[in-house]
Amino acid sequence: MALLYYSHETFTEHDTGAWHPERPERLAAADRGVMTSGVRIERVVPPEIDTSDLERLHDAQYIAAIERFCEQGGGFLDQDTHVGSGSWEAAMRAAGAGIDAIERLEKAAEHTTAFLNVRPPGHHALAAQAMGFCLFNNVAIAAAKLVEDGQRVAIIDWDVHHGNGSQDLLDHDPNVLYVSLHQYPFYPMTGRVLDVGDGDAEGTMVNLPLPAGSAGDVYDAAFDQLIAPVLRAFDADWVLVSSGYDAHADDPLAEMRLASIDYHGFADRLARLAPPNRIITFLEGGYSLSAITASVAATLRGFGGLEYSGIATSLVSPPTSWEALEEAKQVHRAYWEL
């Protein structure tokens, strides 16, 4: 497999403040995962996004306010989200990477994918509000561009936190399928199983809120029994992955119990379901550096059809996790054949 690998030194200059978990070292950890994955790498410099692409989803006044705030030295936008003078360029390149990856994958040789090692992350960002370490919603921006071009898009979000921004920006669009597996109740306290989308898009928001302690067994079952049937029926032209690694058992900020091998399984399944050259992976959360490295490598090997090369770990979910999966399946039988 060939990998379009997006990274840039400016991402390390995004200042989140002292002792912040979303720190530049995360990029180096992900880079180690890419370098040890065994896939063929083509490095790509992410361009800054055109403002018109930002304005499909984000308010113009909000965009201008973020730029001014960064130019003036930055500070806290909310209790969790901090920016500095280098954050504007970082955010513009993070948002631009997805648009560029679309254009390159449309012309790429067969069996190519893209991994975006970017920060700030994006899936919590709302139209006119930064939150949860996010300024602009990188994955939703790419999805909106594809929809404008007549494409159907599936977003698979396996970050431990629900992507409230992605859901809020896209839950009215029948051409976008949003699937989220997340710890619940947990920040940002959104992503209920009954949040299924609005109007003509009803059924295209698939939320699987899982209790603390959920492990790879129930995630695997969710992919096989819920996500895969919905993806096949939706028939997406593109699959975009909000790839947070904070559901890993070693992550210090959450309480889920995934192992690195689980991300290999997720990616392997998606590679079999998505059209060729139509998967883009966006780095979201994940705060254990060792877990990021191992899980990024596992993800890319899964997408590339390579065997998992790490230590196999099998953890068991509590009964409440299986109950949550059954509830989600019951809700979505109204919209999909499961």
Care to describe what's here?
The structure is a single chain. The chain has 338 residues and is an alpha/beta fold. The chain has a single domain, classed as Histone deacetylase domain (Arginase, Chain A). Helix content is 37%, strand content 14%. The protein has helices at 25-35, 51-54, 60-71, 87-105, 138-148, 164-170, 216-234, 260-273, 289-303, 319-332, and strands at 2-6, 40-44, 75-76, 82-83, 112-116, 153-157, 176-183, 205-210, 238-243, 279-283. Strand 6, helix 6 and strand 7 form a beta-alpha-beta unit. Helix 1 (25-35) runs parallel beside helix 9 (289-303) and helix 7 (216-234) packs parallel to helix 10. The radius of gyration is 18 Å and the shape is globular.
How do the helices and strands follow one another from N- to C-terminus?
EHEHHEEHEHEHEEHEHEHH
Please list the strands of the largest sheet in the order they lie side by side: 2-1-5-10-9-6-7-8
Query: What is the CATH architecture term?
Result: 3-Layer(aba) Sandwich
Q: What kind of sheet is the major sheet?
A: 8 strands, parallel
The 3D shape can be described as globular
CATH class label: Alpha Beta
Distance between the termini: 32 Å
